[in-house]
């Protein structure tokens, strides 16, 4: 009896292991045993914010979540979500870093998904555009020199592709997408530009020179571009807008192949253009968020572009004034020297470029603005994001903003001393995935 009783626990142990294995596999095998189309339909209902956790279940889950067919189903069934991509320069990291998050995931710490860096991405002042399923990083600075390299970051798979290089090396160029093609203007080396503008055909993967009738010598003397956008003009066609280093507006019409001079604006005080429903928004020194009609760029006036303040965000001003999240290091020496002279004459000289230019940054998410800023505490540096809905008053035409949500999206170690390099947000874009 003892021997028999002694064997039973061993037998029971083997049964328990069998049951344990049986229970650990169904979640994976049950899903993959379904027809492939049905599996995609099921996974298309899962929020992108849960993809990282779900991919840990098994290799088959991970493969399915990275399949391009899944995103096709999400698009076809109207289940796409806004996914925000941030590119940061972190002092302790030799590479610029991309992160992705969805607003739904903000209440879950650790949901900012790091993306494997591209080892050769320029460190700053690239032109970046979001189109389709990914982000194009165009030109920039590598080793202190302009680059012609172009990279594509697939927002679905978080993988990189090297695209054909531009015909001209560029940094701080304007870029915009019109009818599926990417138009790039300026950013050439001063006085040595052979090609001021070029266009990338995504279908043929080729670059072509843009015809530039109307290009004046001032564009070549001040080839750097500090702002760019794509807007619908008064003629109801899309144009690429750019604000040159000479504070002069430029409008390129792809349908006509013409470049025209537009209105002027201050390069330093207002930065970070974002266009939503043909209204240009920007950040201003002093913590304000401004707006103006895109048609302002087409008017030629001695007063320059007329801006108004987005009302309802006054409580954010003090916080935004203290932010130093945005990088203005490369290529702004001329404007910085000008501001130093101007402020010195007023007794307002400050010690660093970050004290002069706006330290908060705008991006867009559908009809809403995304606002980024940082808050430096004694033991941590927090990066915040807020989504702002916009509404125009019918009686006055003024635009007001309302903060829909505001959350910390990243926490970092603070700089150890005043002159240590600060974490910078280089680019922020959103994709529908």
Keyword list:
disordered N terminus, 433 residues, 4-stranded antiparallel beta sheet, globular, 19% helix, 24 strands, alpha+beta, 9 helices, Neuraminidase
Ordered list of secondary-structure elements with their pairings:
Elements: H1 2-24, H2 26-32, H3 36-43, H4 51-55, H5 59-65, H6 68-76, E1 82-89, E2 97-101, E3 113-115, E4 127-131, E5 134-142, E6 145-154, E7 159-163, E8 174-178, E9 181-185, E10 197-201, E11 206-209, H7 217-221, E12 225-232, E13 238-244, E14 248-253, E15 258-264, E16 270-276, E17 279-284, E18 288-293, E19 308-309, H8 317-322, H9 333-345, E20 361-365, E21 368-376, E22 381-392, E23 399-412, E24 424-432
Antiparallel strand pairs: 1-2, 1-24, 2-3, 4-5, 5-6, 6-7, 8-9, 9-10, 10-11, 12-13, 13-14, 14-15, 16-17, 17-18, 18-19, 20-21, 21-22, 22-23
Describe, in plain words, how this protein is organized in 3D.
- Helices cover 19% and strands 37% of the residues.
- It is α+β, with helices and mostly antiparallel strands.
- The chain folds into 3 domains: 2-72, no CATH class; 82-114 and 266-433, no CATH class; 118-264, 6 Propeller (Neuraminidase).
- Strands 3-2-1-24 form a 4-stranded antiparallel beta sheet, with no helix packed on it.
- A hairpin with a 4-residue loop joins strand 21 (368-376) and strand 22.
- The longest helix is centred in the first third of the chain and has 23 residues, at 2-24.
- The termini are far apart.
- Residues 1-27 and 333-339 have low confidence and may be disordered.
- Pfam families: F-box, Kelch_FKB95.
- InterPro entries: F-box/kelch-repeat_ARATH, F-box_dom, Kelch-typ_b-propeller, Kelch_1, Kelch_FKB95.
- Residues 21-30 have a biased composition (Polar residues).
- It comes from Microthlaspi erraticum.
